[in-house]
Amino acid sequence: MIQELTDCGPSRTYPVYYLEDAMNNLGDCFDYAVNDYGAEGSEVAELFCLSGVAREFERGNAWVVSGKSGVELFALIAERSGYQSGSIPDRTYRFEKTPEYWTGWILAYLQWRLGESFEDLLHVVPFDALRSLYYPWHEASEERVARLVCDMAKKASRQTKLALARKKLKKTQQDLAYESGVSLRSIQMYEQRQRNINEASVTTVRDIAKALHCNIEDLLEPVFEYKETSAA
């Protein structure tokens, strides 16, 4: 399946020839972190995003995607986030792929295939929820899992990124309206999804982002649109 997906469409952030390495290495990273180091998978997933390593994956940084083993990836995440304490234990060889390996493996595929950030993917399907799909979905094709995740995203009841960013700074909607110059009603409608912030003017989103001390893309909602390919 992977070898057949040679097209690098607009949602693909790096060439397909890096994909197999990316999937194997991220799978090994989570497998090692949970089953050898003793970390919680959900915590490692959060640190993966916060450390900036996820962003480098998304950009297709060959040094990270293909140039590091799973153990080295975890060491990089731990170092950047201040998580590591003491020495890194040796990796245990396992004959079978673990659910944690599959979770990292399919997560790398989903990010590449759907073109969404790891942060947005894990917001819709948190690490533990994705891991719970291991039975029976580890026997399904990557494409079937991608379709499933898109369906889950559309049905998921979740707060908008705008609401999360506002609450993180402990601002009320009224505070944000005053500081951004965007009407209170507009703020409310964006947060309630009665209006699509992705379709707002650049000026509007820029002013809101400035008030929330974030980038415009931090407020845009993921689309999670599954597009068929000739190889699907």
From TrEMBL:
One GO molecular-function entry: DNA binding
Domain spans labelled HTH cro/C1-type: 162-219
One Pfam entry name: HTH_3
Protein name: Helix-turn-helix transcriptional regulator
